[in-house]
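Re: weekly structure request thread

Next one in the queue (381 aa):
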Amino acid sequence: MKRYVIGALVIGVTVGVGVWYWRRGGEVGEGGVSARARVVVAVMPVIMSNCEMVVEATGNVEAWQEADIGAQVADNVRALYVEEGDIVTAGYVLAELDEEQARAMYEAAVAARKAGEAEVTLAETTYTNVATQFERTRKLYGEGVVGRQTYDDAETAMLLARGRLEVAQAQLRRVEATEDELLIRLRRYKVVAPFDGVVAKRYVDPGAFAGVGAPLVRLVQLKPIKVVVEVPEGRVEVVKAGQAVRVAVDAVGVVVTGRVTRVYPTLDARWRTRTVEIRCENEGGQLRPGMFARVEIVSGERAELLVADSAVLRLPGSGLWHVYVVRGGVAERVDVEVVRTLGGWRVVRGAIREGEEVVVKGGERLQSGMAVEVVGVEMLP
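Done, posted below.
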């Protein structure tokens, strides 16, 4: 029995030594590092490229213009020609008020003007005749043919005719001014759209009395449209009017382009931000006031380092990012700052250089200092 136990111990020791030797000494590779200890990875080089410098912000879509359109005179609403949702152009007649009395006053002014024009014509004719007669009398008086009294009578008649002409002309100007004023008032009985837009609300119906300034319809302009965003004070200094902008609206799944039109001069003391307005043409009409928007304001270009998206790893439970750089057959962890994402690439900043190889596959099994075996990207799943 004892002999069997000893034999079993010998066998066990032999097997253990063999396993230890296999693990420690088998297949020693380059640099004395066991090939079995190497982690198989795929790599891609770090590249340098000119990239857009963008300022990211969020905000809301707003109407380019919006206004409650009211009447400039007080009277009953005779007709309303629009409904909610109607698209109108500048100058389109939205509503008409009862203009009967205003039109009668205007037509009376037109008749008074015509009578005044007739008076002026008669006065001009009379003055022309009397002035001609005075010139004849003046010549005869100079030749001694007529006496002083005849000359004075002709001069007085000429002056009186000139006075009557001037009075008639003044009266005509007054009548014309009254006519112009009444025409302006008459036109105000038609309420027109001041700009292209969409009728957002109709406040009254035909027959209702509308006071001066009382809103009849609400009009909003959607082409173009504006996006208003808040930019942190640390980034807003690079934002200038005229810069190109990409606007993403998730509610309708579209990305449109625009331009910065205004950077507000003052800072919001609560949030330390400045307001920026962006103009978008909105040709498709998909953007509507109230929608949430994400924007990227292109403030310029600069040379940046890019790595493949799969090369950037995040430390679990933190916001720290890193990559593994292969240097001398060993993976070294390098912490990086992720600036932005460009498709399948990440713009990063850190202690890496253009041309260095970063791990794009197999990095989840790595720790800094591990030996690696590099294979083609297509060799790994």
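The chain has three domains: 34-51+303-379, 55-64+221-301, 99-188. The CA atoms of residues 110 and 179 lie 6 Å apart.
Next request, please.
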